[in-house]
What does this fold into?
Amino acid sequence: MQSEINRRKLVLVCCISGLFVMNFLKTEVSHATDVKSIATFKDWSTHLIVKNKVRICYLHGEPNKMQGKYKRRGKTYVQVAHRTRPKTRNEVSITAGYLFKKNSKVLLTIDGRKYNFFTDAGTAWADEENSDNAVVSAMRAGRKMIIRGISSRGTRTTDTYSLSGFTAAHKSINKACGFK
It folds into this structure.
């Protein structure tokens, strides 16, 4: 019982933190004079935003294959972000291109290793403490990533990403934000 209460508290804290970070990123991106593209590494691109001495460094990838019985779908991508203030590293987010089914989970699989993400509107975030670092480590070592989600209309989707270039892109954002 106590572990379930602790888990619910953790999920609540993650949700609140995720909303804060999403709003921060949206605000920073919309108020930044420009987003600087750093480089492209095969299937991943890296970018930098600087505003009020805060650096946001992120990498961005889009699926190579998208499956599902949908008529219309928005942009779909995965991002990993670092921020210098507050010092945040390896924050993984999934944007589905649709609103997720309420209270649904997203399953991210990297070379057979599975990670659960919780959903909030059209974005999914890692749902266990410190799992962002585990996901990023698996992405660095992996070859293929598959993401499965369910839209608010019940449509099941499967998106497949190549992880080719991910490690170089991750090293690039580490350098851009001054992380080792």
